[in-house]
Write a structure and sequence with these properties.
The chain crosses the membrane at residues 20-45, 66-91, 103-124, 145-165, 198-225. It is found in: Membrane. By secondary structure, the protein is mainly alpha-helical. The chain has helices at 20-53, 59-89, 98-131, 133-138, 143-159, 162-165, 193-226, 248-261, and strands at residues 166-171, 183-188. The protein has a single domain (13-226), classed as Rhopdopsin 7-helix transmembrane proteins. Helices cover 66% and strands 5% of the residues. The longest helix is centred in the first third of the chain and has 34 residues, at 20-53. The chain starts with 19 loop residues before the first helix and ends with a helix.
C-alpha cells in the first residue's frame, strides 16, 4: 500500500525561497535575456523583410526566418515572465488555476517544438535548393507554406498530451496567525505519469532526429558549395570541362553561406 506524504502545518515554507539578492540578480538576468531575445528576433524579422523587398533574399527563406523568429519570441514571452514570477519570486504564495497551468505548458512546449522544426524545414528547403536544384524547381511555389504549416502542426500534435498530463497538484496548509501558504504547483500529474513520460520521450526522439538530419543536410550543402561552379559540368563527349571562372563576389557569397550553415 502506498502511504501519503504527511506535511506539517506548522512549517514556514517561505524559508526555502531564495533571498532577495538572488531574486534581484535572476530578475536582472532574465530581463536581459528577454530584452535581447525580443530585440534580436524583431530585428531578424525586420531585416529579412527589407532584404526580401530589395531582392537580396528569397521569399521562401524570408518566410522561414519570420516563422522561426516568431516561435522564438513566443517561447520567450510565454516562458520567462511566468517562470520569473511563479518559480523565483512567489513560489509558495501564488498558484495558477488548473486550466491556465495546462494551457501554459501546452503553449510553451508547442512553441519550443516549433522552433526546432522551423530550423529543420529551413535546412531542408535550402538542402533541396543547393543539392538538388532540379527537384527544387519541380516542387512548386507552395512548398514553403506547406513546410511551415507542417512544422507548426507537428509541434501542436506533439504538445497536445501535456493538456492532459499536466495540471495543478500539491497541498495547502492552514497555519494559525499566518497567511495561508499555497503549495499547489503547476506540474505533471501523478495519475498521468506514464503519458507524461511518453510525451517527453517522443519529444526527445524528435529533437534527436531533427539534430541528425540538420547536421547531415548542412554537411552536404557545405560539400556542394565548396566545389567550383563548373566542376559538375560535362563536355559533349563525356569529358569533364574545366571549372568556369568565378568572380570574387560569387566566392564571397559561397564563403558567407558556408559560415552561415556552420
Amino acid at each position: 500500500m502506498s502511504e501519503e506524504l504527511e506535511i506539517p502545518d506548522d512549517k514556514d515554507w517561505s524559508e526555502l525561497e531564495p533571498n532577495y539578492g538572488i531574486k534581484i540578480f535572476l530578475t536582472i538576468l532574465y530581463s536581459l535575456i528577454l530584452l535581447t531575445g525580443i530585440v534580436g528576433n524583431s530585428v531578424t524579422i525586420r531585416v529579412a523583410q527589407v532584404l526580401k523587398r530589395n531582392g537580396y533574399l528569397q521569399k521562401n527563406v524570408t518566410d522561414h526566418m519570420v516563422s522561426l523568429a516568431c516561435s522564438d519570441l513566443l517561447v520567450l514571452l510565454i516562458g520567462m515572465p511566468v517562470e520569473l514570477y511563479s518559480a523565483i519570486w512567489f513560489p509558495f504564495t501564488s498558484g495558477s488555476g488548473n486550466v491556465s497551468c495546462k494551457i501554459y505548458n501546452f503553449l510553451f512546449e508547442a512553441c519550443s517544438y516549433a522552433t526546432i522544426l522551423n530550423v529543420a524545414t529551413l535546412s531542408f528547403e535550402r538542402y533541396i535548393a543547393i543539392c538538388h536544384p532540379f527537384q527544387y524547381k519541380a516542387l512548386g511555389g507552395r512548398r514553403t507554406s506547406a513546410l511551415i504549416a507542417f512544422a507548426w502542426l507537428v509541434s501542436i500534435l506533439v504538445a497536445l498530451p501535456l493538456l492532459i498530463a499536466t495540471g495543478t497538484e500539491g497541498y495547502i496548509p492552514n497555519l494559525q496567525n499566518t497567511p495561508a501558504q499555497n503549495l499547489t504547483f503547476c506540474t505533471n500529474l501523478r495519475e498521468r505519469w506514464v503519458m507524461y513520460r511518453v510525451s517527453i520521450f517522443v519529444a526527445f526522439i524528435v529533437y534527436m532526429i531533427v539534430l541528425v538530419c540538420v547536421a547531415f543536410m548542412c554537411w552536404a550543402m557545405i560539400l556542394v558549395l565548396q566545389k567550383p561552379l563548373g566542376s559538375m559540368d560535362a563536355g559533349v563527349n563525356g569529358v569533364q570541362r574545366p571549372p568556369k571562372h568565378e568572380s570574387q563576389k560569387v566566392k564571397t557569397a559561397r564563403k558567407q553561406t558556408i559560415i552561415f550553415l556552420v
